[in-house]
Amino acid sequence: MRFLRPALVVVFLALAACWPTDALAEKPDQSAKKGVGLPERKGKTARHLELLKVGWYYNWGAQTKLTTDARFVPMIFSGRRAAPEQDVPFLLGFNEPDHPKQANLSVEDALAKWPALSAKAGFIVSPALAGNPVTKDWLNGFLKAGAKVDAIAVHWYKGADAARFIKDLEQIHAHFGKPIWVTEFAPQTAADSAAAPGKYSQAQVDAFIVASTRFMEKTSWVQRYAWHDSGAGTSALFDANGELTPTGKAYAAAKK
């Protein structure tokens, strides 16, 4: 680096600071960005990660029982969960604290618990909201109060509309000025998929996967993304036998 001009050194260091430490190694057939939320308690295993060709995963908890090449990223689901005992390179914050059936935390309660989490994390991702992080008060108030956050977590379930998805991510990034981890995205939530499993055709979902992942792979400020398996309909990754659905195959085919 000593041969670089001073201005270039500054740019290099600024870019490097935006990326997670302990970067994930990539295999030729998979992207380090591409991940999945994997419910181990529902019987999902390392085999399912291999089928999807993902570089990382999380399970909504702080520990995993799986042995896999994919990177496990712990999450502190709610204020009732303790901070990791050991330092971790990456940590996901509270899951939907603005939702009464999820973490269900006030900004004040979250702020009181956050320093213990951030002290254990080399890189910490914000709580992921159920509502719009830009227009709702929760995350704006949390960050305004000075909470340490290295990236913004995003949940997105607004149909098989890649243009809308991309526009929303661009607005979130512009508003907060931080990298983004899309920790849940799909056309439908699990509840919506159960109620209307055929709302979106397979062709619509396949096109959404191609366009959305292509955008995220080429966009430097989108650091990680993870599909959410709805368990039913065309947002589901696996069938009743644990094999890939057409949607699972489309997601597995997404590459860097």
Shape estimate: globular
User: What integer value in Å does the Rg equal?
Assistant: 18 Å
Tally of individual domains: 1
The CATH architecture name reads Alpha-Beta Barrel
Count up the helices: 8
What is the CATH topology assignment? TIM Barrel
Low-confidence stretches: 6-19
Explain how this protein is built.
The protein is of the alpha/beta class. The relative contact order is 0.14. It has one domain (30-253): Glycosidases (TIM Barrel, Alpha-Beta Barrel), CATH 3.20.20.80. It starts with 5 loop residues before the first helix and ends with a helix. α2 links the parallel β1 and β2 (54-58). 33% of the residues lie in helices and 14% in strands. The model is unreliable at 6-19 (pLDDT under 50). A six-stranded parallel sheet has the order 3-2-1-8-7-6, covered by helices on one side. Strands 4-5 form a two-stranded parallel ribbon. The chain has helices at residues 6-17, 46-52, 107-118, 137-144, 162-176, 190-195, 202-218, 246-253, and strands spanning 31-37, 54-58, 71-72, 91-92, 124-125, 152-156, 180-185, 222-227. α3 (107-118) crosses α4 (137-144), α5 packs parallel to α7 (202-218) and α7 (202-218) runs parallel beside α8. The radius of gyration is 18 Å and the shape is globular.
